[in-house]
Amino acid sequence: MDKIKKLIAKKNKSKIVSLTAYSKNIASILDNYCDIVLVGDSLGSVLYNYKSTRQVTLDMMIEHSKSVRMGVKKALMVVDMPHNTYRNPKEALKNAKKIISKTKCDAVKLEGGKKIYNSIQTLIKNKIPVMGHLGLLPQSDKTFKFKGKKKSEREKILKDAKLLEKAGVFSIVLECVETSLAKYVTKQINIPTIGIGASNNCDGQILVFDDLIGLNPINARFVKKYANIHNQIKKAVSNYSKEVRRAQFPSKKYSY
Ligand code: KIV
Questions:
Q1: 2: which residues sit within 8 A by CB, 6+ positions away?
Q2: pLDDT of 40-65, one tens digit each?
Q3: Residue 8: how many CA atoms within 13 Å on its side-chain side?
Q4: Pairing of strands 16-20, 204-207
Q5: Residue 252: exposed, middle, or buried by beta-carbon count in 10 A (0-12, 13-18, 19+)?
Q6: Which of 55, 173, 174 has most ligand 1 atoms within 8 Å of CB, for mutation?
Q7: What are the pocket residues of ligand 1 if the criterion is a CB atom closer than 6 Å to any ligand atom?
Q8: Sign of the four-CA dihedral 208, 212, 213, 214
Q9: pLDDT value at 1 more than 90
């Protein structure tokens, strides 16, 4: 069974584990524990301090993905198509083909529903596997609030999820979606939902890796910090600095 079929088969059986990676060494660790490794355009804010992921370019995504590809051997590797690279089917196909050929990733992810239906359909017709992304859409939303409070929002997300399933996406990320809506959407479609800030009712979860290890200074409700790497790095660098200043490093052991 190919990786995508295996992933879909997990629905209602076992939870799907996903994380983001932007480079090889981290990706090679995640590969042992994740079903999906996503090269997310969140790299714009996490690594480059951009105010918005809208500033991320296709070339940036390709270069980071080439690095990640070297570390991912088992998991499904998905790459985000950045803002303004899939405004119409022709543009989407050209850019998705470029991402796939340069990075050898397994699939691409696009943000949105009805508006990008034709682009998604074109990619899938051309045998490019697509992951959807609904709820909070960082590439196009003006405010970053959770979705599903208003009836209109709930109806739109459900409609879009069904539409994306019809277009043939293999999975949908639900970002910052209210608990009961995430549960309902997950029940209403036959492909896995992957939540981030969307409760444990989704078929799987994704987090930004730098958030999970406590390296990225973010304080969002949906982020659980499983480590405090920031402090560990501080300690290591501080010790190195002290030893260099005292001429204790490098000692004989580290010299030729
Ligand atoms: O860009 C990203 O990292 C993402 C995840 C948060 C789902 O889209």
A1: none
A2: 999 999 999 999 999 999 999 999 99
A3: 15
A4: parallel
A5: exposed
A6: 173
A7: 20, 38, 40-42, 80, 173, 175, 196, 206, 208
A8: positive
A9: no
